[in-house]
Amino acid sequence: MPDQQHAPLRDNVRLLGGLLGDTLRDQVDESLLNRVEEIRTLAKQARSDGNWQPLLDVMSELPDSDLVPVARAFTHFLNYANIAEQHHRVRRRRDNRREIDVPSPLGTMAELLPRLLNNGHSAEAIVTAISQCRTELVLTAHPTEITRRTLLRKYNDIDVILGQLDRPDLTPKEQQTQLKRLRRRIIAGWQTDEIRRNRPTPVDEAKWGFATIESTLWHALPEFLRDLDEQMLQHTGKRLPLDKAPIRLSSWMGGDRDGNPNVTARVTEEVLLLARWEAADLLLRDINELREDLSFGTCNSALREAAGDHHEPYRELLRKVRQTLTNTREWAEATLNGEIFEGHIYQHDEELLQPLQLIYQSLLDCGMEAIAHGRLETILRRVACFGLTLMKLDIRQESTRHSDVINEVTHYLGIQINNKPYQDWSETEKQTFLINELKNRRPLIPKHFPASAEVQEVLDTFAVLARQPASALGAYIISMATYPSDILAVRLLQQEAGCLTPQRIAPLFETLDDLEGAADSIEQLLAIEWYRQDIGGQQEVMIGYSDSAKDAGFFAASWAQYRAQEALSSVCENAGVHLTLFHGRGGSVSRGGGPAHEALLSQPPGTIKGSVRVTEQGEMIQFKFGLKELAIHNLELYTTATLEATLSPIEKPKQEWREMMQTLADVSVKEYRRIVHHDPRFVDYFRCVTPEQELSRLSLGSRPAKRRASGGVESLRAIPWVFAWTQMRLMLPAWLGTGKALAEQIDQGQQNLLQVMLKDWNFFSMLVDMQEMVMAKADAKVAGYYEQRLLDNVNAQSLGQELQAGFHQAHQAIESISGHSLLANNPMLQFSIAVRNPYIDPLHITQVELMRRLRLQDQDNQEQLEQALMVSIAGIAAGLRNTG
User: Catalytic center at which residues (predicted)?
Assistant: First the structure.
C-alpha cells in the first residue's frame, strides 16, 4: 500500500487505538491495558511466525472476570478501525475531486457521460435515459447490523471529529479541543453497553430506517441530484427535471411478514403512519427555513393571485403550506393514538408540490434564478425522492398464506370442483376460478366471514393496504411463488379489500428449482389476457440470492440467477411487457453481496432497461449510507451502473463460456449438496464448530432465526447460516463446491479458457473477484482451532479434514486462474485485513473457550460467560464487516 496515500489512515488508527488504551487505563485499570497489550503483541507475533502457542497459553489463563473487558477492548478497536477506514474513503474521494488533472474514476457521472457521448449516444438519448431511469434501493431490517444505534451515533461523532482534525488551518488550541472531544466520545463508547438486551420490534427496526434517512440520506439524495444536474448541464446542455429522481428509496421494515409473526397488520399500519409523521416533520423543518429566506415582495402575477395582497407573498403562501404540514404531522400522531383529527392534511405529493412550483416559477420570472436553485430546489428534489411518505413500503408474504385464505373462503361458501377443496384443485382450475372472480363485480368474501386467526390476519393486512395512498406502497412480494395462481390470488385479495390503486405484485423466485422454472411461470402468467391488461405493460420479478445460495452453493446459484434473468427478460420482451428485476442481495458474498457498480454491470445484457431494484441489508446500510459523503458516492455508483447497463449493455457471453459456466455449476452444486444436504456428518459438524446455536441469544432482529420453530439446518434462515460460518472464518457457503469445480477444469487443461473468461466476461470476473475476497478473509488455521477445541465426534472431525482440504483446493484454484496471490491487486483490503487479524484472533480464541464452557451444564457464572460470548460475536462481526 503506497505510504503517502494512506499514511493518514494509519495515523487515525494509531490515534484512536492510543486513546482507547488511555481509556482502558483510566476507566478500568493499568493491568487490563497491560493484558490487552500483551495479547495484541502475541497475536501479531503468531501471525508473523506461525507459532500460536504463546498466545493460546496466555488466553487460556485469563480468569472469567477478565473475559468481558478483554473481549470488549478488542471489539472497540475493530469498530474504531472501521471508522478510520470509512473516514479515509471519504478523504480519498475528496482528495481526488480536488485534483483537476486527475481523470474522473469509473462509477462517476463525470467519467460516464463523456464516454457515452464519445461512443455515439446523443445528448437527447442520455437525458431521456436519466430522466426515465428508476434505480430503487430497498432498505431491509435483516439481522446483520449488530451495532446498537446509540453507539452508531457516537461513531458518527468520531468521524466528524476526524474530519475537523484533517483541517490544515486548526490552531493548536483548536486541535486540542477536538482531541478532548474525541477522548470524551471514546470514553462514552466504552461506558456504553454494546449488546442489545432486548430484541428489537419491527417498529424499532422501522425507526432505525427512518433515522438513517434523517441523519444522512435526507441530505445526501438531493445533493447527489444537484451534482447530477450539474453534470448533465455541463455535458448535454440539459438539466434534470425537478420532478425526476432516478434513484429512490423503499423499505421492507414493517412490511416483511414472511416467517416473522411479529409483523402484523397493526404493525404495518403503525409503520406507515410513523413514516407519514417523519416525512411531514422533516419537510416542516425545510419549509420553516425556506420562509426565513424568502422575505421579499417581488413576485409574478400567478403567485400574487395565490398569496393575495400581502407584502411578503412567498412567506404568506408558505404559511399555508406550513400549517397543512403541521396538520399532517398532528393527524399521523392522532391516528397512531387512536384519535380523530379533523383538519386539512396533505394526502398526495402534488398538493405540496403545487405551491412550491408556483414559488419556483415566480423566482425564475423575477430574475431570482440563483435563489430558486438554492434551498427551494433542494426541497423540490426531496419531495421527488421521499414525498409525503418518506419511503414506499413493500409488503412480503409467503404464497401459501394467500392460498389458505382462498381455500378457507371457498370451503365456507361450499365451492368445490369434483368434490375437492381449493387446495387440491389443478393449477388450471385455480386460474379459471380466480380470473372469473376477478371479472365478477360482486364480492367473494362475505361481510361477516368467520375466518381463522391466520386467515383474518391476512385479510386485515389487505384492509390496511387498501386505506393507504398509492405513494405509500411499493411492491407486494410473494415468496415461494411457483405458479400463476399464486399471483392471481393476491390480486383477488387486493380487489376484495377495495384497493383502488393496487400494489404491483412481484413473485420471488428463490431456490434453484424456482429459478429454473421462473420463466415458464411468468410466461404462463402473461398468457392470461386479463392479467396482461391489468398490469399495464409492467411486470416486476424478484430474484432471491440468499436461499438459492444456501440451497445450491454460490457458483451454481449465481449461474442459475443469471440464466433466470435472461429467460425472464426474453419472455417479457416477447409479450411486450417491461420487466423490472428486483435483486434480493445481502451483505455477504454468498448472499449476493459485493461492489454494487460491478454487480449491476455484470448482469446479463439487456436485463436492466432503465429500472432495477436492489435490497440493502443490515450492516451494509450503515457501511454505505452511514456518512453523507459515502452515501452520495454509493448513490452515484448505483445510478451510473443502471445508466450504463441501459445505454451500453455488455456483449452476450460466448457459447463456450456459457458451456464452461454450466459445467462448473453442475460440478459445484453436486459437491455442495453432497456435503450440506446428504453427508450424515454435516449437521453435527455445523452445530459444533459454529456459534449457530448461540446466535439465537443475540437480540439482533425481530425475525426468528428459523422459518419454523422446529427443524434442522434446512429450516435455518440464510442470514444466520452465513453469519455462523463467518464467525469461525471458514466462510463455507461462499466457496464450497467452487474449488472442486475449478480445480477439475484446470486439471483438464482449461486454465487458459478460464483466464480468458476472467478477463473478458464481467459476470465471471465478478464471481472470481468475490471468491478471492472471501478466501482472503477466511482463515483455515482459525477454523481448525474451532474444530480442535469443539469437535468430539470422530466422524465430524473427519469431515472437518475434508473441508479443510476443499478450502485449500479452492484457494489454489483461485490463485491459478487470477495469476497472483490473494488480493495482490487490492493492497487497501490486504492492509485492512492485516491490521484487523491481531485483534480478531483473540476474539476467536475467547469465543471458542466460551462456547465450550457454555455447552457444559450447570455453569455458575453463565450470565457473565454469555455476555463475553455476545461481545466476541459482535467484535468478530465488526472486524470482518460483510458478515451476513
Answer: 142, 550
